[in-house]
Amino acid sequence: MHRKLALTILTCLMIALINSGIVIAEEPKKDDQKESVDKHTETCKHNLQTIGTAIKEYHEKNGDYPEWLSDLLTEHLDDANILICPSDNNAGKALYTRAQDPNKPVSYNHELLAAQRTQVLDTHEMFGDITPLVRCMHHNEKNSIDNIMNLSFGYKVYQAHYYWQNHLVEIYGGVEEAISALEDGFQKMPNNPRFFSSYPTLLKLYISTDKMDDAEKLIERYKTVIDSKNVYHYGYLGDMLKDMNRHDEELQLYEELEEKMPKNRIVLQRLENIHELRGNEELALEYRKKYVPGLAFLGEMVPDFEATDLEGKPISIEAYRGKVVLVDFWAVWCGPCIAEMPNVKKVYESYKDKGFDIIGISLDHDETKLRDYLKENEIPWRQVFSGEGWNSPVSRQYGIYAIPTMWLIDKEGKLISHKARGEKLESMIAEALKVKAEEE
Ligand SMILES: [Zn+2]
After folding, report:
1. Which one of 3.20.10.10, 3.30.43.10, 1.25.40.10, 3.40.109.10 gives the CATH number of domain 175-292?
2. Confidence at 18, pLDDT banded by 50, 70, 90
3. Ligand 1 centre and the CA of 143: distance in Å?
4. What's the gap in Å between 30 CA and the centre of ligand 1?
């Protein structure tokens, strides 16, 4: 869209310059590139249109869609080059491996793969003929996902965001059009949880066009289709109540959910947000403490754990009393944990002789991989490993749901930080050790 706008401006500028008698001898290189990208877009659109005609023919003859786009050759499509987008630098590679045509080089993602055919046909049922049937992912600038070229079930070509369902007004060509399409969809598929996220979408459209009665009815209708055990389904209901400014009902809904699922993070987070918006900051913090591991222990004694280390020796926080300790919940499979490791090693080397130590709590499943990593990277501090991943007893005890989680504990056993990592790790340790020195 920006590119089109830029070209329009450029064209206008050129006409103005020609009218004023100035001739541009050579276009700047940047615009050359733009033009060639645009040519690619045009060729790609043309390819998709041709593929659309072939699929239509195939469908009319066989009563079904082809399994792969290469199945269109050569009866319905005589030129195999049509299956290559000029923006595809690999000349025949769909951007997702599972979408790669097994028979011919094909640049396009065929949406009706066997593995997802039912889902995509349902999507077609819900959203109608604008639903993408074939997509070209090769026009992304800087890996953005807003420039996907689509051939729809209605054999129209249009450009849209990867998550086209979030841009229905543009695609249908107007708010009223989007409303009536979604109403049709829900008429056919009111109970399919895959499309529950479109209930809040339709509600927003009703609100934007002041159809408040329809909005109220939609909420009542949604209440009848959701699964009372599914917290995500309630999330959409909460969103809708919020959009309707029915804040007390939203709060009541989540307080009821909290009774049913007192440890559910999504519920607790929502209650935190609700109270934050109401200005109940203390209550918001109370909820935050319930789901952010360690937050409740800040400035308090960290409850101890009992475990054995990789050598089979007992290990606990209490045994480190008198030292500043970093408890590192991590795993070899966790990229950010591994990225943090040089920093952790550096602080260990700098402070290990000054009263600092580290306990690793590994959430790995594979003991060999863990031991190999520790050996190769010369990691000397002790490790707790149960092989149960997220279900490791120590990780469960503290409610760890994301790693790296790094806790810094002072010499008395009180938590200094539940986010002791990155640049600030070293200064935190230095400060904690200085306190110790001063007190002695
Ligand atoms: Zn393309």
Report:
1. 1.25.40.10
2. very low
3. 14
4. 21
